[in-house]
Request: fold
Amino acid sequence: MEIVVFYHDDLGFKRWLDEHPDGYVLNCYTTGRVHSARCKSYRSAGPRMTHSRAKACSTSERQLFEYAEQHHIDATRCALC
Reply:
């Protein structure tokens, strides 16, 4: 399993979401939420989804929580998805 990080790459991020509908997304900041790839909470964020915060993506939720810990991101699961 691989983690792919998108920053200033909305087209690549949207393509990854379409290709991995059962995947997971982590908003990268000092705090972050782990979302399912189908979660509507960030899909409605507008056309510039990866410009204010990078998005780390993986097919493994566990792997994203490990990534968050390694990068000192206080991650929690999204309450909406």
